[in-house]
Records
---
Amino acid sequence: MYNKVMFGKCVSDGIAIGRITIYNRRISPDQGSRKIVPKKEIARFNEARKEARGLLEDNISIELADNHATNAEILESHLTIIDDPEYINAIKNLIRKGGISAEQAIENIRDSLNAKFRALDDPYMQARAEDIQDVSNRIIRILVGKNRNVPKLGSATILLADDLSPSETMQLDKNKVVAFVTRRGSKLSHTAILSRTMGIPAIVGVDFPSDCDGKIAIVDAYKGEVIISPSDSVLNSYMEELEKDRRRIDELKALVDQPPITADGKYINLWANVGNIYDVNKAIENGAEGIGLFRSEFIYINSDDFPSEEKQYQIYCSAIRLLEGKPLTIRTIDLGGDKQVPYMNMPHEDNPAMGNRAVRYCLGHKDVFKTEIRAILRAAALGNVRVLLPMIISPEEIWQIKEIFHEVHEELVAEGIPCGYVPIGAMIETPAAAIISDIIANEVDFLSIGTNDLTQYTLAVDRQNTDLEFICDYHHNAILRLLKTVIINAHDRGKRVCVCGEIARDTSFTETLLRMGVDELSVSPNQLLKVKQAIRNARVSH
Ligand code: PEP
Ligand code: MG
């Protein structure tokens, strides 16, 4: 049948024409349904072990280059486990005799050695048990990572899925996916935010049939329509639309070098929200005056293990080089909620959005936090770096975090490692922070309002819930009143206010935000020019 039209909600504007690939996460080849062939499992184990060994060697070199001899020694002891014939043979034998998958065999051997060593009540053996655990988990992660079942994509793929997590979205080949269509998801979900950052049209809430895999389709993410097997005439008219869309984008490009000044002369900082170097590049291409929000957790989501200090430092150094003196605002890790990474082994929470996320996690895992802060403070020696703290609810949290920054700074100075001071800002994304924004503003150098979470927590509506999206509305009077309160409180204390939530990209609302007194807007790189146009058309004097 031609022109089968389905409807959904646009979360990232644009038009795309391509071939459908259905991504079905539930049919994962490494789960129960897969037929186990011991020979193949042993080959998978061998390959993953080799890869884990290579990664370990890389980590050791980084630790040595960083003068962290103790860390390097620990990792070297892991190398002896990974090469231990007894450990290797135990796993292979179990695969052969037990007929189980490689990851299952590693898990069983890990647990039995763990129990054996821990029972010995000898501190050396206890430490050995931990090392075995670490090495085994490293290999399992590689095996599981290889089976994430992210499909191989042809060019011009329209990806259809029940739902996509931020990490799945990030793994997809951005040069091949021309549109996302999902059954679930909402405008404020991180996957929607990612698709906007990548500039890929996306529609959520589409109840697509499961037999459309491989068919040609059109995604109109202005109207919220997916047209499967379009007729020639519909296809031709959309080819023209696509061309017009490209011309509209080209027209906006003429604004790249124009300043973000309102029609009545007020200069507004227009910054970008990013999650990696690719985004930073795109932000600069689109004329960003700086980075208002670097979501540092995406470095963690993109890694198979905790990213080293060196890796994080190098990423920030690259951003600083690209920015040539423009500000780089790094938000400290905001993991938890819908942003989970398997290697953190976070315990199950019934309500993760209100759980151990962001600064709460960091204050409970000082080692992880200090590694991130070391990378940030080292990068601050080279450029204009600022720090933003997510999910703040009290001044006590800020005091504790400042203390840790101070501690890390002293450690770096004592080690003779160049580092800089950083202005510290607070995200206002909980009603608590907005209500006491006078107190918070006294403790920090600047404020940045995250309207995505502020809307979720103020209206008590899960930002991920497709069915409740119609009430997850950042135009609600409660949000506008909170915005006004925050701006007045910050300005009374001489502090500037940025808005980095998705409301900042809503060009029908730009003038209202600027009239309220917002000093800075930070949006996805591909929204910059549209927002700049809205700033240049706005009048802020009443
Ligand atoms: C926000 O909550 O508005 C925000 C910018 O942070 P994130 O969307 O990453 O939670
Ligand atoms: Mg947030």
---
Amino acid sequence: MATEEQRDKRFFITTPIYYVNDRPHIGHTYSTTAADAIARYHRMRGEDVLFLTGTDEHAQKVVRAAEAAGLDAQSFADRVVTSFVDMWDKMHVDYDCFIRTTEDEHKAVVAEVFRRLMASGDIYKDHYEGWYCVPCETYFTEDALNEGGLCPDCGREVERLTEEAYFFRASAYGNELVREIEAQPERIMPDSRRNEVLSFIRGGLQDTCVTRANQGWGVPVPGDEAHVIYVWFDALINYLTAAGWSLDDEKFAATWPPDVQLMGKDILTRFHGSLWLAMLTALELEFPAMLFAHGWWVTASGEKISKSRGNVVDPWAEVELLVEESGCTTDVAVDAVRYYMFREVTFGLDGSFSSEGLLGRFNADLANDLGNLLNRTLPLVERYAGGMIEQPGPGAGELSEEIERAVARAEHGFETLDLRGMLMGVWELLSAANKFVDERAPWDLYKQGKKVELAAVLYDVVDVTRVVALLIAPAMPSVAEEIWRQIGLDAMGIEMSWDGCEAGKLPPGAQVRRGRPIFPRIDLDRVRQRVAAEAAEESEAEEEETDMISYDDFMEIELRTGKVLDADPVEGTDKLLKLVVDAGEDEPRQVVAGLAQEFSPRELIGQTVVLVANLEPATIRGVQSQGMVLAAGTDKPLALIVPDRDVEPGERVR
Ligand code: ME8
């Protein structure tokens, strides 16, 4: 529950801002949709929400990606940013502010932070000598590198930097950070991550290099344009820009500090949990109420899903798969992917993403539990009550306790970011309602003419679907709207608000309108068979492919003409001849050929033949052979392959 104090202030939630060299993948989508669900919950409670996301554009890797695309960095960023904006739009992400770090307003705020910290002595000029990992955009000291001298985070090569640079005096704030975090542990969640941050800070915060030599990309250091501000220092400040720091004091006062800052676990310890908090301490600004680090989506073999590892899961491909396999609408498929991500893993832990798991949950949780309750209940209202929700008599409200429990669990889940627990509570309510229908058997009540009891049972069950729609609305907004429509509340102009999360608030007079099933069941056997058939086809195609060689493969075989200078039988065999061949090289080669039964040495001497010149040398019957002479014939050599006119030894044959 939001406290009164929080209600005066906006609910401010942030995601990381994503590097614009990438296109959004499932990992990015996880941070953003989770933040979206939390933001929607607070909006439903009537709070003023500022949900911030955006793109981090001043990275070196953006410059490199732009170069590879043949564009300047700004044009490249302008192009790629649309893939984030579009993806969030398609994934039902309703942010309030999208920041791009290349916007003038943000650049001005970054410069202002720099100026103030220079003035307070928190930033000073010195000399940087150390290592930099471009993919991670992180500075490392020699000691921090792993054994092979590689990046300790991603294991790739690092670059040596020796340059004049500015440093942020993070070392001055370590003790204060530890005190603050220990005093309010919920500032960094989950617990295991907080412990990592604390031990990192206790290990001694180093002053951080916060500039790079200006190579034309980044926010220039005010008054010293030979340098640009380090991408992380620049990016973290986006949270201040969005809140209006140094731009709009009133807005800032109403917004700061953030209530929740979400991020993946990889960018907590070094960046948000220490550098960011140290920056805020130096600026004398309040800490966010909670930094929450979620886990990673990994592959089945446990590898982090990321662009650089080439194993990305495209969320949109998963949406399309659901539409294709189930025939549901795209909006429903989007919500199903959101549901899967929130339900599959405890928020904070790692999870392995699989399309099979997604399809399985679609059937089991969405089609069976949720879809089933709707599909069996609404026809009953149509059949027995002309589709109209009636004012229930005494006896209604039998599921009130279950409703109360699910609401309490959902609220607790949203407040503590236990999205999985929140959904599990809703699904317990669904299963209680499905069981209730089975037990109370409205069809029997109808047959027995027990009208009052029948009206009460139908009311209770539809009331559950109403509350379920509200509880799942933050996570699955389109599905919730569709349920709202089907139970006739949309037509009555009733808004979805968290205040409605109480039993018995279903207004009599609502006219249910059953639609197509929201979650058509997927035939998982058919999918499995199809996947197996596709895999077989693919491996057949691969096999066929391996029968063929590419032009490039062919060109790797070095065929050359060679003149046979001498030929002798190889001792101990009647098949082999030892040839001395001039292949246009400094020295003639010795080649062993299986020609002895069809060709006499005399026939061969003086002959120009074709030689595989780059065949690995081999020892045949104790004789060294450097190459192979080409002859036609399946079982035995019937004819030598020879040029049809005179050519010099050593000519390339192709
Ligand atoms: O770090 N599973 O941006 P980014 C879960 N620009 N989350 C994942 C993930 C995965 N497989 N892969 C990435 C940056 N993420 C900086 C942030 S904020 C001031 C600057 C998450 O595009 C990752 O943990 O590399 C991080 O939270 C986010 O995606 C952005 O990653």
